[in-house]
Here is the input.
Amino acid sequence: MSQFTGFNVAALDFYEDLEADNSKTFWDAHKAVYDEHVRAPVVALLSGLEEEFGAAKIFRPYRDVRFSKDKTPYKTQQGAFVAKGASTGWYLQIDPSGFRTGAGFYRAEADALARYRRAVVDERHGKALQKILARLTKAGWTTGGDTLKTVPRGFDADHPRIELLRHKSLTVGKTYGFEPIIHTPKLADAVRADWRQTRPLVEWVAEHATGEQA
Here is the structure.
């Protein structure tokens, strides 16, 4: 397995060009660029993280357009996910805007979402989640995820953690953009540090809501 040496500018240029011409003709003419400058570095980066975090799923570059009004055939980003629990774990992505990392739970079935909300309401577990998110915010992470506009059924609108109760998914993200580090081997150390920093969130969700990955 090749060592990760950073992402070449060609990876960013590839996605910028793909946004302008999302066609099979372009893809076929530039697939070698994707293989060498996008997929291969992602594989190398994740290989170095596997022993500590687990095996990653590298998402396919092809869009599922069967039920979509947008029929463009190719994704304009390359993402990968390491699962700790169901739809719960660590994420990374490269796209025309640069590089980013993330963590949390990206989707939850109804029973997992119910467990999540029960844990948020619990005084001890709910406050623990608040502290985890506060530390991550202070460290530069941005909290995201899909949320309800209304109060979830069965909960009090005045609950002190109502904003957390509204979440249908809960993630944190950090954007590197075009920082010089993304073109160097040091990015691997940065991702490792990021994922270690977010481990308390991932483990909280896996323990209290989505369960451990089998």
Helices lie at 9-20, 24-53, 110-121, 123-138, 162-165, 186-210. The domain at 9-210 is CATH 3.30.930.20 (BirA Bifunctional Protein; domain 2). Residues 24-53 form the longest helix (30 residues). The mean pLDDT is 96.
